[in-house]
């Protein structure tokens, strides 16, 4: 399966973009009410938890921290939440957030790779990343997120 790769240029410092990616206050706005939960220590659990099919504490995705360098790199394994796919470990991939200062802005590169053949979450991930990253850019630049309407 082809790697998913996205690059956005955001009018903000790497610190501002990083905060949007890892603070509960920001992820709750970007990820439709879900917050990121992790110690961010290598090997530790990372989860996106929020409203969903199992109520307010639905684990949407989870994995383990592979690399963490504040304002530069966050890399983790990615599994769909157990409430979505019974054999959630059948579909492992890897997500990388890479931040680089470019002039007075930040280049945010997101890569989701190491897909398992036949991963049923691939197409939905591709669609969702565009919305999530647009929300990230808009939040950093304006202080609010986009309204995608019901059912997004």
From TrEMBL:
Domain Activator of Hsp90 ATPase homologue 1/2-like C-terminal as annotated: residue spans: 13-135
InterPro entries per record: ASHA1/2-like_C, START-like_dom_sf
Top-level taxon: Bacteria
Pfam family, one: AHSA1
Family, similarity comment: Belongs to the AHA1 family.
Protein name stated in the entry: SRPBCC domain-containing protein
Organism: Lysinibacillus agricola
């Amino acid at each position: 399966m082809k790697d998913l790769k996205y690059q956005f240029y955001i009018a903000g410092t790497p610190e501002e973009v990083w905060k949007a990616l890892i603070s509960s206050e920001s992820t709750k706005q970007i990820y439709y009410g879900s917050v990121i939960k992790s110690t961010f220590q290598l090997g530790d659990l990372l989860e996106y938890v929020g409203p969903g099919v199992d109520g307010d504490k639905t684990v949407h995705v989870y994995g383990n921290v592979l690399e963490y360098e504040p304002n530069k790199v966050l890399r983790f394994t990615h599994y769909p939440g157990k409430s979505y796919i019974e054999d959630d470990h059948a579909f492992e991939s890897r997500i990388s957030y890479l931040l680089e200062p470019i002039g007075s802005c930040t280049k945010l590169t997101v890569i989701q790779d190491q897909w398992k053949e036949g991963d049923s979450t691939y197409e939905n991930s591709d669609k969702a990343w565009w919305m999530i990253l647009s929300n990230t850019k808009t939040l950093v630049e304006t202080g609010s997120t986009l309204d995608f309407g019901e059912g997004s």
